[in-house]
Amino acid sequence: YPTWKRTLTRRAREAQMKRFCRAQAIQRRLEEIEVTFRELEQQGIKLEKLLRDEDGTPADQKTQWMNQLLYLVQKKNNLMSEESDLMIAVQELKLEEQQWQLDQKLRCYMNREESLKTPEDRKAEQEILAQLLEVVNKRNVLIHIQEEKRLSEL
User: Where is it chiefly localized (predicted)?
Assistant: First the structure.
C-alpha cells in the first residue's frame, strides 16, 4: 500500500469510529430522556390528583400546584424537542454511514482503468452514483428540516 492509501484507510476508520461513538452517545441520551419522561409523568399525575382533590385547599397552594404542573409541561416539551433533534441526528448518522459505504464502492470502480471496465461495471458505477446522489439529497432534506425547526424556535 502506498502511503496515501494507508492514510485514507486510517482516516476512514477514524471517521467510522467517530460515527459509532456519536451513535452510542445519542442512544444513551435517548434512554435518559425516556426515563425523565416517566418521572415527569409520575409528578404530573400526582399534581393533577392534588388539583382535583382541592377541597379546602388555600388558593395560594392551588396556584403553586398549577405553576408546578405548567413547569412540568414545559420541561416535557423541551425534552420532546431534544428527542426530535436526536432522532434527526440518528438519521443523519445512518445516511453518513451509507454515503461512506457507497463512496468506497464507487472509488473501487473509479480506480479501475476505463479500458478494463465491462458494461456491467459501468452500469454498476452509474447505479452507485445514483444511490449516492439520493443519499446526499436525503441528507440535504434533513439539514433543511433542522434549519426550519431552528428558525421556528426563534
Answer: membrane
